[in-house]
Amino acid sequence: MKTIIEGGTIVNEGRTFDGTIVIEDGNITEIVQPSESKRQTSDSDEVIDASGCYILPGVIDDHVHFREPGLTEKADMESESRAAAAGGVTSYFDMPNTVPQTTTLEALNSKFRLASQKSHVNYSFFFGATNDNTDSFAALDIHRIPGIKLFMGSSTGNMLVDRREALERIFSTSPLPIMTHCEDTDIINRNMAEAKAKYGDDPKITHHPEIRSEQACYESTKLAVELARKHHARLHVAHLSTAKELEFFPEEGITAEATVSHLYFSDRDYNHLGTRIKCNPAIKSERDREALQQALTDGRITVIGTDHAPHLLSQKEGGCARAVSGMPMIQFSLVTMLELVDQGVLTLERLVELMCHNPARLFEVRNRGFIRPGYRADLVLVRPQSGWTVTSSCIQSKCGWSPMEGHTFLWQVERTLCNGHSVYAKGQVDTHYIGEEIAFR
Asked: Which positions of the chain have pLDDT values less than 70?
């Protein structure tokens, strides 16, 4: 199968240029620039006209919760990989807080089997750390998984690792990058008790950033950094949410992720979106958001992910105590960040660095994340100045809602190619297509 993509503007490795991409058997074989000899298209099986579009590497989302197995009333691998394809995301790393938790080799292998039957884009899975499973680390295949996920604060799935001796073992023995959820549970519990005493048993959502506070995030991130330095571990801090935490970055071997939600929303948005933007760690102040946005361009933030975490809307009812935390964002992550490009927050080239190149570099993904000959043809075509509004009918996630409903975007994902196959085009996902297992290192 030979495909040619012509007429588009390629954005890759800090450059923006016109060119033609040739794909054979799922791999990029040539990138032909206008100054070079004109490409013959007569021997191709498919020619894609990308006129007016930018061609980017497919997005690699290093942080998703697809809820399968065990929580499939909210979402599953089929539905959420559909949402990924529609959003230009061609690869994802799923988190371990499912049922059962991905904290044993048996549970990990079960997830791979499910994905090989259901995922429409490329996939891999983090292995979850617990207080007592470090003996399993030696048996992990470092070529199949991106890293170890460590919850250093209470979150969905009750996977809190809170014993100092367990944390020391994890940081000293992990053969892989450790991705941490950093919030201090004791501080959060004290804050919640104080909030309930002041405001009642279920404080309004506007108090969420007071409860899951800057201090709770900072103290936990500080501990993670100290442990990584002590044991020379490779640390990746997930979903940074405060300006104060940025003081720890950049440092060799220690990196940070920012999510689309923390980069786009601020605490003012609770007034009209309510618990739809309730997540852990909490969306915080405009000052925090601005600091995170600034850190996208100076190297303190290395990766943009989503922490895509679907829940049913019925589970989002209530306030700080009752409503669950998490929101579905994968389908609209790329177009949201392109909106920030239009606002001058970052350049298009830097967006590609943060959403495509850097996840591949950080986790040593094989042959993905760049537009290069010999690499798998994971690509997304996006068209500017094609305004459209998010409605419930276009949402692919099984939960059926998005905090972006009613929002009008000026950029649109026109086509997503996964391993050279058009998994999304003309507003439709090819649900017969199954992605590939990602290889590392």
From this structure: 37-42, 154-158
Look at residue 38 in the predicted model and tell me its pLDDT: 56
Closest to 293 (Cα-Cα) out of 267, 268, 269, 259: 259
Residues forming the active site: 307
Q: Say if CB 72 and CB 102 are below 8 A apart.
A: no
Q: Please, which contacts does 346-350 make with residues 24 or more away whose CB atoms are closer than 8 Å?
A: 346/293, 346/296, 346/297, 347/297, 348/11, 348/16, 348/54, 349/11, 349/14, 349/15, 349/16, 350/296, 350/297
Q: How do beta strands 379-383 and 89-94 pair?
A: unpaired
List, in sequence order, the alpha helices (H) in 13-142. Answer: 77-86, 105-118
pLDDT at 34: 85
The Cα angle at residue 188 between residues 236 and 103, in degrees rounded to 5: 45
State residue 162's pLDDT score.
Answer: 84
> Is residue 200 classed exposed, middle or buried when 0-12, 13-18 and 19+ CB atoms within 10 A define those classes?
exposed
Q: How many CB atoms lie within 10 A of CB 295?
A: 21
Q: Residue 239: helix, strand or coil by DSSP?
A: coil
CB atoms within 10 A of CB 14: 11
pLDDT in the model for residue 42: 61
CB burial string 364-399: b at 16+ within 10 A, e below: ebeebbbbeeebbbbbbbbbeeeeeebeeeebbbbb
Token match 């760049």: residue?
370
- As given in the structure block, the two tokens for residue 55 are 């061609």
- 379 alpha carbon, distance to own chain's centre: 17
Q: What is the pLDDT of residues 339-395, one digit of tens each?
A: 999 999 999 999 999 999 999 999 999 999 999 999 999 999 999 999 999 999 999
137-148 as b/e, with b when 16 or more CB fall inside 10 Å? beebeeebbbbb
Quick one: pLDDT at residue 35?
Answer: 74
Contact status, residue 336 vs residue 404, Cβ threshold 8 Å: yes
Q: How far is CA 325 from CA 124, 157, 262, 309, 368, in A?
A: 23, 11, 14, 8, 32
Contact at 8 Å (CB) between 304 and 285? no
How many residues belong to the chain? 441
